[in-house]
Amino acid sequence: MSARPLRALVVLPLLLAACDGSIDAAADEPEAPGAVRRRDPTRVRVEPVVVRPMVSTLETTTNLESERRVAILPRAAGEVVAVLAEEGDVVAPGDVLAKLDDRDEAVALREAEVALAESEQAVERARVAIREAEARIRGNLLAYENAKAVYERNEGKGLISAQEVDALRLDRDTAESEWQQAKLALETATIDLSTAETNLEKARLAEERARLALDDTEVRAPFAGTVAQRAVRVGQQLATTTEAFVLVDLDDLRAEFYRPQRELAVFARGARDDAGGDGLGVTLTAESHPGLEFDARILRVSPDIDPESGSFRVTVDVAPEQHGVRLLPGMLVRLAVETERRDDALVVSKRALRREGETTVVFVVRDGVARRVLVDEGFSDDDSVEVRPREEGALQAGEEVVVVGNRDLEDGDALQVTNPDEEPRTGDGASDAPATDDAGDVDEVEAAPATDDGDDDDRAPDTGADTGDDTATRDGEDA
Length: 479
Description:
conserved putative lor/sdh protein from methanococcus maripaludis s2 fold, single chain, 31% strand, CATH 2.40.50.100
């Protein structure tokens, strides 16, 4: 080995030792009094302030109901002999759903029909009797008038004997008596006719009652709808308190919910007027149809306040078929009622808010530094919130607000924006800040801050001859 390489190997450790000593000395040297230590830019993520509509909504959960949903009970007790409708069947008004044993009712109806026929005949006989009495009255009246005329022609004339005159008087009086009896008979016949007509009406009522009793052995649909439940079987003995069927109208859906009385004025304008004006907007979502939003409207608002709960009832009308699907009674739905709307609201992400007691602030990025802006919160949804700056013009649409990294920010702090899919950028206000090797690492925005020894992990360990040769070469070049 030549002398020159040997000298290089001797000098190299001395140079490294001298360098290490200088570094340690610099590290141990105290900072000068009054020196200002520069702070690295705080790495943050930002989102712009946008202007878009925001609404205030009230949300509640309820179940859909049919405006017409009834439990059908039989009108008569008896044994079921036939079931003619099943669950899901669409029926018309008056359709027979089930039949009961009607033999007793059929016999009672036949008896009532016979009694009705007898009463009708009695009325006819009474009417005939009246006609007979009227005819007899007319005949007796003629006989009386004739006998009276004969008597008056012979009385006091001396043409016949006194005995014959007495006989004519007797004929006249007899004819008058028979005439009077005929009139009494007419009155009696008239009374008999009235009695017969009354009995006829009773017979008709009895016949109608028997017919209704027979009809009651058939369980019928009271309106057009769909059979929701069938609770009877053939051979079952039903009472008048047994629910046989449940019938619903699937085309007339409602949703009811209750609100506190302080909101009565808001909902008073909720229903659409007759002129077609829009009231409060209502939408609903159903667990059975995720991802779909259905339209609804407030149908009526009850003016009655429940004294116990202090709330009033709101009824919402829901179209049963929307988006190609059908809503059904009993479905659990969530209603959202739009009570107020602002079309030009300043909106930021909820993550941009930092609450300090009763004060809410956002940090705006201006010239690369954070600027603290006091705001009041307005309407909000799941991710965003309306903000109203307390000073007019303190926040504008399009400005960027800090959404990640704003927990410990102070007004005037230098910022380094490291949004995903975006080159790291540092504003003018932070241009003098020293850069670090991993400043552009977006994935470490919320990790521990970078340190001065961030390059230690990249230093190759001195474990081999090759590494020693490389180090020697670099040092030789530096030297």
